[in-house]
Each structure stands twice: as structure tokens, then as C-alpha cells.
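Example 669, ligand 2-(butylsulfanyl)adenosine.
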Amino acid sequence: MQNNLDAQKRIVELTVLLKEANDAYYMKDSPQISDYEYDMLLRELENLEKQYPQFQAADSPTKKVGGKAGGGFGQIHHAAPLLSLMNAFNKEEILSFVNKASQNKEEKPTFVVEPKIDGLTVVLTYENGVFTKGATRGDGEIGEDITENLKTIKQIPRFIPTQASLLVVRGEAYLAKGDFARLNAQREEAEEPLFANPRNAAAGSLRQLNPEVTAQRPLKLFCYDIVHMEGISLQTQQAYLTYLQEMGFPVNDEKFVSKDPEAIWQYIVQFTEKRHQLPYDIDGLVLKIDDLSLRELLGSTIKAPRWAIAYKFPPEEKETQLLSIEVNVGRTGVLTPAGTFIPVQLAGTTVSHASLHNEDFIKEKDLRIGDWVVIHKAGDIIPEVVRVLPEKRNGKEQIFTMPAICPECGAKVIRFDGEAAHRCSNTSSCPSQIRESLIHFASKAGMDIDGLGPAVITQLLDEKLIHHAADLYDLKLEQLVELDRFAEKSAKNLLNAIDKSKKNPLWRLLAGLGIRLIGGKVAKTLAKNFGTMERLEAATSEELQAIAEIGPKMADSLLNWFAQPQNRALLSALKEKGLFMGEEILKKEGNLPLTGKTFVLTGTLPHLTREEATALIEEAGGKVSSSISKKTSYLLLGEEPGSKYEKALSLQIPILEEDDFRQLLASKE
Ligand code: IVH
């Protein structure tokens, strides 16, 4: 900094930037800058404030922990301040921390190194062993009351066998990488905005005013700290972790204990590589002094303890060149540009392709073919362009425009008002839409036909054995055995699987048709409310919107789909082939075996997945609820049950294991 004025200006600028970044990260769960950029700006501000303390703002972001309790939730005053951590970015900073902590000590202190889970801090309060309160960190003093949302997380015990009259546990709620990818895929399907990474997805899921939304997100948890305890006494971090595990909290197995600074650094180096193999995101490692009495001696600043430090991984970003943009046509006719890049190693894999989403994304980034770009992986999985490097341009870069005609069928491309997507207008015969629709029809999200994946569908289309979904049900053994990669056995298996799908519940067919905005969950609601395809087809917009989950956009999409003659023709062809369209449900309506019964599921069942058990219950007229109450009719019990089991016992709710459940279904048929 050249002079006071420059320093003051920069301090104000950094203060504003960091406040905005805090707001985007903590309050809106939608970060505008990367964590690394944030940390670097914060460091710059800390250094400037040290040199020019007279310019420090009273509410400087360097003084306090990020968020504040947001609107819509009650407030919880934490039992003790929830501090943040100091950061280290290299070996020197780690060794300096270890050496400082060891100075003047006769015996070298022991350190515990733990993965730093990239999620959302949660604080769980247990009074006499009962889970009574759950909060976010907020500003470190006051957090948001998210108790009801936390109760939907299976891993959080509702009761613990503790001697402590009060136990306050700190942990990190997160979404596993795979669950994050699935959630975003569902959101893309429902045309909802995507989450930038698993952390935002976890935060967005927990900070929901409606706990039912939280319940549908597969949130997980790791606990790593006891913020406050009364009635018990523990002396070390290792004892904390063991105790938490004994009490039934999820505790991360990954940890390293050592007194040796070099060994600690080696562990950090090895773990930096290993992190991509973990099923969850971590953004660093936390290095903590084990002995609690030593921690007390060292104390804390207002923001962070002196007995712990976070090693933050350098950002996983790579520079590469965009070589070309290819446009793919999806099953709903949406044109998606995809970039091909010079292959680079990134977060454990070679990356050479990334979706460029839509034309707006390309325009916003001013991305041109031939540009050098920075790419990263969202949630360690999905490659994405972060920014363009205009300084590397040589003038030969080409501006991309969306094609005016469909690259697959030559039909006109249209863009509806208010939509980011361009679509091929040929909904009935665009080969790409047909192929993608068939792939979706047969997929797990739709009719779930075993052995009928993208490769087989492409083969069947190429051989002109099928043109649309109804043709699948006319396939013959003689035709299949002629095809490459098919033997008599695999052909028979495929035909059996196709035949079996005729008996699928109505929602599978509805979801498999690939109607815009109608995914599996909405399809189930529609099937439940209308019972038959015929009734659904005849429903008016008002009747559709009378259902809580169905809004005007979904209603329009359904009406529009049923209004197309080719769609109606497909439905009657499928009906002719004998596909179940809900008729029997109509006959039994009102008199289904489990009408009026509410089930709660806990633990893993030996043969049924949670979805399959839910489908069986719902098809038989029953309901599935996420929490036990006096009104629950049955608890369906699997292995490693959660606290619902104890609650069911205490409320004397009848408990069924999978066999009993099957018997119940059979006896009522
Ligand atoms: S220890 C006062 N251990 O990282 C010390 N924190 O930047 C308490 N985090 O919001 C924190 N994994 O919630 C600790 N194994 C771990 C952690 C961890 C994730 C979070 C923590 C805090 C952030 C600090």
C-alpha cells in the first residue's frame, strides 16, 4: 500500500466484498466467490487492519464468525460461543502452529488430525439424554432453531444413554457426493436451480422452513466436538470422539494422532491426495491439541481457539483450452451445449468434457471456442467452467451461437419467453428426442426395465426394431438373438423384463413418459389422486392444481402433453399391449387393504429398499410418515434401526419385520 488513503480505500473495499460474500454463503446458501478467494481476501484485510488499525470497521468481517440467525427460524443462544478456526495454507504455517503450541513444554503435546467436513455446522443439545434442541452456528452466539429439520436426519439419535444432565454436541451435516449428484439431477429434471456444491445443497436442505423438504434430502452427519457438558468429565479430544461414538453419534473413522510435526505434515500430504476417494467433500484437515487442560492454557481469540488450526486444501482448479462446443438434444428437446477441452487431470480423474448448460451461461462467461479457461469440479464430481482467461486470447477465438435448426433433425429451434433453454420444435419425430425418451422410459426413474439401457435402445433403434415405447412390447426372441451381443439367454431375460414392466404401478408409467416437470415424486402424487390414466387425462387445470404439490406450470405441462395427438396415440398403443393403467386400483378404491394405516420405516430391510417398501404400502392404500406418533399404525423395522425404534416401543406401536409385513399384505389381498 502506498499511503494511508490507499490502505483505507482497500480496507473499505475488502470489508464490503467480504460482507457480501458472507451474506451469499451463510444466508442465501449460494456463494459468489470460491472459498479460497474468500480466505485470501480475509487474510489481506487482516494484514491491512494490523498495519492500519484506525481504519478497521466496528463490525469488520475479521472480527466475527460468518452468518447471523436468519428470518423464519426461532433463535437459540448457544451454551458456549461456537468459535471458528484459524487457517493454514502450507507446511510452514502448519509447522509454526505445532511448534508454537509445543514451546516451553516438557512433554511434547499430542495432536489429533481430522478431516474438515465441508458441510453445515449443527449444534445438538441433549437434556438428560433426550434430544431437545438443534441449531445452526449463526454468528457463533445465536443460531437458528432447526430442531424439527434435524429430527428428520436418521443419524441423529433422539435419545442417548448418557450420564450427563446436559450435553451439547457439535457436528457437521453434509450431503455425500453421490447424493448431491442425484439431487441436482432431480432438480434439473424439475427445472429447478441447481446447487453449486454439496455444502450449499446441505445448507439449503437444512435451512428449510418445511421439515418435510429436509426429510427428503439424504443428509448425513459427523460429530467431532463437545461444546458443553454437565455431569460427566472428559480430558482429551480422543476421549470426546470415543464417547460420542459410544453414545451412538456418527463419528468419522478417519483420524491421525501424533506428536511429531513431520509425521503430521506427511499425513496432510497423503490425505490431500486421498480426499477424492472419500464419498463426501472435505475442504481441509483440522489439527487439534488432544489435551483439554493444555487447550485451556492456550485459550482463544474472540474468533478462534489457539489450540486448533484448519489446513485448507489449495483449490482444485486447472487451466485448459476449450476446443469445440457440441450441441446435444435431450428427451424434452432441450439443446445442451457441451464443451470439449484439452484433457487435464482434475480431482482424481481426467476431464475433457463439461456441460455448458445453455446459451446464457456461455454469454455470461463470454466463453468463446478456442478460449483458455479455468475449470473445477462442483462437489468433486461435476466438471465446470469457472472463468475465462481473456488475457490468453490470440484473436482467433470464435463466438458461439446456438444453432437455429436442430442438429439432429433439422427442425426449427425455439426459445420460449422467460426460459434459458432452446428446444427442438419437432417433438414427434426428432431422432435424438425419441432415443432419449426411450432411454428415460426404460430407466430406473421410469419403467425400470432391467437390461434395457442406452446401448441396447440405440441398437434396437438402429436396427429399426422399435420406433416408440409401445414397440418394445412387440419384440420377438428371433429378432433379438440376431443382434450383436445378444445370446438366447440374455434375449429371454430382456423379453421377460419388458413383459414384467406391464404390471408396473401407474406412477412408473407416468414418470416414464417423460412429461416435462413430472418426475417420480409428482407421478406418485398424481397416481394416488387420480387412480387411473383415464381420469388423469380428463382432469382440468383446476382439478390438477387442487393437489397441493401441483402448480400451474406442472398443470400446463400435463394438459399440453395430453393434448398432443401423438401422445394420446402412444397411450392407447401402450394400453393395447396390456400395460397397467390403474384400472384395478379404481375397482378396489376406498377398499384397499391398508387404507387408513400409517407406517414408519426404520433401518435396512433384508430384501426391500425403502422405496420398494414405500411403494408396496402406498399401492395398498397406506401412508408412510417420517416420524412416529401415537397415530402411527405400524413401525416397519429393519437392521440397525434409528431412534424411531425406541420411540415406537415407548408408545407401544405394533412393530413388523419384513416377513410380518409381507404376511400382512398377503392376508389382506
Ligand atoms: S473443530 C472451535 N473439527 O470447520 C473448534 N471443525 O472453519 C471447532 N469443521 O465451522 C471446530 N470438520 O464446523 C472441527 N473435524 C472438524 C471439522 C470442523 C468441519 C468445520 C467447523 C467450522 C469450520 C471452521
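Summary: The pocket of 2-(butylsulfanyl)adenosine is lined by residues 83-85, 114, 116-117, 121, 172, 224-225, 286, 305, 308, 310 (CB under 6 Å).
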